[in-house]
Known about the structure:
- The chain is α/β, with parallel strands linked by helices.
- It has helices at residues 2-11, 34-41, 54-59, 64-70, 98-107, 126-144, and strands at 15-18, 48-53, 75-80, 82-84, 87-89, 113-116.
- It contains six helices and six strands; from the N terminus they run αβαβααβββαβα.
- The relative contact order is 0.13.
Amino acid sequence: MDLIEKLVKEFDIGMAIHNHPKQPKNPNYKFWDPDYILSLVKDRDSRMGSCADTGHFARSGVKPVEALKKLEGRIISSHLKDVLNGADVPYGTGQSDPAAMLDELRRQNFKGNISIEYESNLDKNVPDVAACLGFVRGWDAARKGRD
């Protein structure tokens, strides 16, 4: 991490740790845990943080909104997902509460990028990705009247 931080400063770049799901057969793997990710970056340059993959947090038994709250100020980017039974589903049809995740990112005044990373139905997922985009547009339109 010392070398990475040196490069972040030297080249004025951001560095984000991307989480993946908990690995039950590998107890040494800790990148699923937002507390672990935070422990690696909290006392480092502010350009070092998390690429918060909300689907992988959910698959690891971590509530995505709680993970985003823990990582506040250290979220560089996000792979926003809604998950049902471990699979990516169109936003609003799963158990991850994408509206609450977007609300939390807005509350944090998050300025990074949010990716719709959709890893289910890979050969025919364009309609599902379009549904996710439609959800975000609807969420944004609904919030504009409140802000």
